[in-house]
Amino acid sequence: MSDSLRELWLRGLAFNPAAPSDVLIRLLDRAAGEAGPLMCEGRDLPDAVIDAALHHPVGAVRSALARNQHVDPARLAPLATDPSGLVRAHLAGGPRHYPRRVRPLPDDILVTLLTAKDGGEDGRLTAGEIIGELESSRQIPLSFRRSLATREHPELRIRATWNWGSLTPEQRAGLLDDPDPAVRESARDGSWVLDPEQVEAGLPSYEPRNQAFVLGTCALSPALVEQCLTDGLLQHLAQNRHAPAHALARLARRPEAGIRALVATRPDLGADLVAELRKDPDADVRMNARLHPFSRTWAEYDMIHRILGHGPDCTCPITEPAPRPSPDWFAACAASGEPVLRRVAASWSGLPAELVAELAQDDDEEVRIRLACHHPLAPSHLLLDVFVTRPAHRPHLLTLPAFPRTGTSHLIDHPDPQVRSLAAADPALPDPPLEDPDEPVRRAAATNPNLTPQTLEVLLAAPRTAEGAAANPSLPVPRMHALLDHCLDDVPTPPTASRR
User: Are 408 and 426 in contact (CB under 8 A)?
Assistant: First the structure.
């Protein structure tokens, strides 16, 4: 048996959806090489396999499991206190390939990572470096962030003070009067963002990129407002919720259409300026002004600005809005004559089924695309249509439970190999294209469960189709074990250190 066939069989078995736990656990053997870590990272796993991976002596196996986006994250709790800092960091960092939607980690894992006193026994990373991975991972849900101000651990309440502007008045008062002196001190230090004089005094000490953040989010003194207007820092001021009315009036009449468009949807914009912008010579400004009745709160404003300026191939991360507008507001958006507002509605995963059915037939393609990518009740035929017509969305669509795996055989002659690959694995396809010129299509065809045992044996012996045949769910379990016997017997075991 050639090394190439051995690796192909191992990879195929690792992703065979019908492989039982005892087959998958054998793939955790060091002799299976990279198949075990690939499996632990790249697919859903039975409980017995998860347990074996959680306690595996090879750090690469535990690290791979830590990055798994298919396993219930609650099952990964032991990895938050793993002896290896690298394993903890991989859990904190989340899936390797940055999926559009990341499942949040449970509260207990977040508390463990955020309050850890060290970065693991191996000393490879500090606790702070691991927290840095977590902060950028999108695995901290907004509900957890909102709860920080009342958490038991002082370290977490201190973290709440770092986002002073997002706290309620009651939370700010509680932190300023916290029983822990370190929390009180951090609260006093954090409160400067709402003090215009302190903001003005501290601005010169920041780097330019941080200055931009300050000008766009903090309460500004009259001098800083004027500086933004005279120095061309208009975009920051146009998005700053603390901008005074007189500054908005000047921004609404600036020659730059982009600035006027930013101001046009602000919920604090006066009715006279809205009326003026509805007659603006620029079409985008006029449209934004028409949206103003749907931008009565900052939460509604934020939802609208998630959509503005994004085209049909937008693959931005899918995150929950904070705070979220009311369900009635989303329903009103769904019934609007403005395509932008219907796109907003289609982007909310809580939209009722009857409105989902209506938007699935919307005349606007971007409405249909957003519904397919964002809503769990989007019909499977819509998911398939977007998959075929919009390649940018394919990686995300393939992760959705409602994505169809059957009813695709009519696409077998499609010119795009990715589309043919989908059709090649359809059980309804009578003659899978095992000789297709494109390797992914041949591999997918070899996974088709309609293939006979005799055909599978032929495919297993050919490098062009061996991996797909080993991943075929019709492959008998005894044959899976026989392949593993061939692959794992008489193979030198690599040293543990090489796997860490």
Answer: yes
Length of the chain measured in residues: 500
**Contact between 441 and 421 (Cβ < 8 Å):** yes
Which is nearest to 70 in space by CA: 48, 92, 55, 50? Answer: 50
Higher pLDDT, 335 or 489: 335
What does each C-alpha distance from 72 to 69, 140, 318, 319, 490 come to in angstroms?
A: 8, 15, 19, 18, 36
pTM of the predicted protein model? 0.91
Confidence (pLDDT) at 496: 40
Helices 380-389 and 365-374, packing angle to 10 deg: 120
Q: Over range 318-333, report the average pLDDT.
A: 93
Q: What's the gap between Cα 39 and its chain centre? A: 21
Question: Rounded CA gap, 404 and 360, in Å?
Answer: 16
Asked whether 212 and 228 are in contact (CB, 8 A), the reply is no
Confidence of residue 413 (pLDDT cuts 50, 70, 90): very high
* Secondary structure E strands in 178-285: none
Residue 377 CA from chain centroid, whole number: 19
Q: Is the peptide bond before 391 cis (omega within 30 degrees of 0)?
A: no
Please list, residue by residue across 190-209, b when 16 or more beta carbons sit within 10 angstroms of its beta carbon and e when fewer do: bbbbeebeebbeebeeeeee
The per-residue pLDDT for range 459-499, each reduced to its tens digit, is 999 999 999 999 999 999 999 999 999 999 855 544 443 33
| pLDDT at site 178 | 98
| Element holding 283 (H helix, E strand) | helix 283-290
Q: How far apart are CA 368 and CA 152, in angstroms?
A: 44
Exposed / middle / buried, residue 165 (Cβ in 10 Å: 0-12, 13-18, 19+): middle
Tokens 């026994």 belong to residue: 121
